[in-house]
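DATA SHEET
Item: assembly model
Revision: 1
Owner: S.N.
Input lines:
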Amino acid sequence: MKRFVDLAAVPREEVLALLALAQRLQHHPEPRALAGKILGLVFFNPSLRTLASCQAAMLRLGGGSFVINPGQGSWQLETRTGTVMNGAAAEHVREALPVLASYCDALGIRAFAEGKDLAHDLAETTFGAMAALIDKPLINLESAANHPCQALADWKTLDDLAVPRSGRFVLSWAWHPRALPLAVPAAVLHMAALRGMEVIVLRPEGFALPPPLMQSARQAAAGAGGSVRETSERAAALEGADILYVKEWGATACYGDSAADARLRAALTDWCVREEWFATAAPQCRVMHCLPVRRNTAIADAVLDGPRSAVQLEAHNRLPTQMAVLHQLLKS
Amino acid sequence: MKRFVDLAAVPREEVLALLALAQRLQHHPEPRALAGKILGLVFFNPSLRTLASCQAAMLRLGGGSFVINPGQGSWQLETRTGTVMNGAAAEHVREALPVLASYCDALGIRAFAEGKDLAHDLAETTFGAMAALIDKPLINLESAANHPCQALADWKTLDDLAVPRSGRFVLSWAWHPRALPLAVPAAVLHMAALRGMEVIVLRPEGFALPPPLMQSARQAAAGAGGSVRETSERAAALEGADILYVKEWGATACYGDSAADARLRAALTDWCVREEWFATAAPQCRVMHCLPVRRNTAIADAVLDGPRSAVQLEAHNRLPTQMAVLHQLLKS
Amino acid sequence: MKRFVDLAAVPREEVLALLALAQRLQHHPEPRALAGKILGLVFFNPSLRTLASCQAAMLRLGGGSFVINPGQGSWQLETRTGTVMNGAAAEHVREALPVLASYCDALGIRAFAEGKDLAHDLAETTFGAMAALIDKPLINLESAANHPCQALADWKTLDDLAVPRSGRFVLSWAWHPRALPLAVPAAVLHMAALRGMEVIVLRPEGFALPPPLMQSARQAAAGAGGSVRETSERAAALEGADILYVKEWGATACYGDSAADARLRAALTDWCVREEWFATAAPQCRVMHCLPVRRNTAIADAVLDGPRSAVQLEAHNRLPTQMAVLHQLLKS
């Protein structure tokens, strides 16, 4: 493995090997495995778990890291090609990224969706152009429509919770004050499909996941013995559910139009997950969320603080899975 | 010792053991003592000495660290319970802190006073709620009304300066453009009392330290053979003083009312420490301040640059004492 | 060597030894050379290469680092002496820098020119005052009129490119939306002169490099068998050139007057390096720039992406030369 940018691009057996490696590293530390190795981290957007788990993973394996935040202590970076750079950006990623890559053994990049043009974001135009500049192992720390590190941690969490491979996995939209990117729902949808689960995407009208994402997930499900469908009927979707994976995202019916998005979501504040949602779910149904989560807007306090919540385990799993990815990319 | 959040909660003999350990580590380095160990650092507020000394201490002992600045490159964090989170904060400390704790071996948190409600701040409501979320060794890097790392470094400084245990320690208010928290005066008052010194709190009317702090310090003094009193008479307070510890803090008579505080302090610009202050002090009387200090508003250039100043030694002592605390919390 | 603050202050044979050390470390790593050593980094201004290469260099040599950004997560620092500090700055460098130096084995400081008074900036008044406070090995990470780490990396780049010692080195001004400091042109001018090259400074009227810089470079050139001259005639300057080193800087005819500077540069947008510039240059003439560079304002895409560009090699060389400087300052 030379890059970890898209879980869908990693053969299923390699994903399973990464999960096994994560379990091994969790229980049998290798404190010198990456001695002398350096991870460069470029964060165009805020981060808590990704930043801390990447740095902790390198330290746990004996390596180190450095962090660049463009525009915050470091130059603002231009990503568009062909631009006459007479604005705020002092440097172009065409210079910055190969330079940073030359200082380290692997580079991780976080660059959220621009949220203007759906096709542009789904095509990973910006991240793809950046990835093409780098001749070192590369990790996608969340791009416009992907978050493979989150997806891998989520898969491990399902394994840790002993959720059956063929279990019922409901990915539900939740309310948020504004439109958020598709990266996590896209990555998680594919992950659950690739795991072979019965996946149901529950979302209000106007928030359907884009057809290419659904189609790709259906293909992955077909190969793994699972299925993917979508609905806006909450009770039916949650019937017998083993997992409710909660995530906020922007309206796809009017992608990039924040006023239209706001009008659509104004009536949807009841898409805040409460205990009542689980009336028809499997008794042991657990709640997942990639975090950060807004309490009492996306998920109620009682659910987050109750026995259904698996968000802590899920977030903790960012560390062993990050260690596995780094170990796989960097161990000589 | 599992936590270092309040010097008053550490038995006196354990404080003395930490001071002895700091001396030992200063003179006999243990460059692999914390090999493979990780310190997570969460800074809700600015820091220079605390940040740098914590990171340097881990490096000196063979370990590493990561830093999260909520709202600066990382999500803004909510601390209030029960809130409907539809504002600026993307995440709640109830999620963020246990997650970060799960990535490291010890967590340090800096969270200044809110400065609105005195009882709330003195009760350490915010820090206490955060501390309750963490099941790892925890270090208070300054909370609403405490700063145990500073207090420990100050104690070591008094020892290094060979100030007698029963010496006269004057903690004096000094001018600042606005109200600052009570954390340092509270911690230092208790430290000097616990060391057994003759402690005099010198402050203008309206700036008396809250009775619970004075009472707790008097109790500590009683147990250690010292005493605590307060006055607004500068010359009398400084008579025979061995140490003048300078600190700025907000008016307690009108805590949380910045306009009233500003009116009170408007007439107090002569509370800038100058050489004249020492007319009646012991000839070798030294000046301490936790830093950062505003020159020529809190302390005059001539004093800071003169032979009385111990601020450099005091700040430098943040490193060996931090090493001692981390060694004690993390060394297997 | 105790400090690396000015290449002109380092004897020529020591510069050559640093370059040899950089080559050695590049090809024969010493992963434990600086085990347990700490580099403190203070960035008053943004940085990408300097920050990342310093941190990577310490990691590659087995050491560690910490970073302080005054005003961003750390206190805003005052640099002027004698000030009554009742403004935004909470701390003076007179306290902050010795304290930070006491936490590490070497300190690096970046502090750009104030850009108001040319004599003040050329005299390195601010950096000099800061340097005088520090009793540890010190590295200048770019001061008002110097950037020795960049100059050393550039020298190595010339060696790597096998540019003859006596080759023709054209340092050309380029357009930028606003006045930039003289640090890089000053350092690079001196470096090329000290290397013994035929140096030509190409710049429009109003942008001549200050006479003291030219004079000092001429002296260095004389000792090394090279020469230094200046012109505003582009074609003549580039005739037979081996290297075109591109850099933006502010008008020296009206230093500190941003309106006058803007008027002067308004007519100079054709000072964007394009392939046509090389009509009379040596066929293999290469382009250097310290980065960050604004594409299509200072240098055209076609040049940066074409075979003449050496900017990636140049930026990469920041790492081995930084390792050499740190190794020299810190290896026991």
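QC remark: The two ends of chain B are 12 Å apart (CA to CA).
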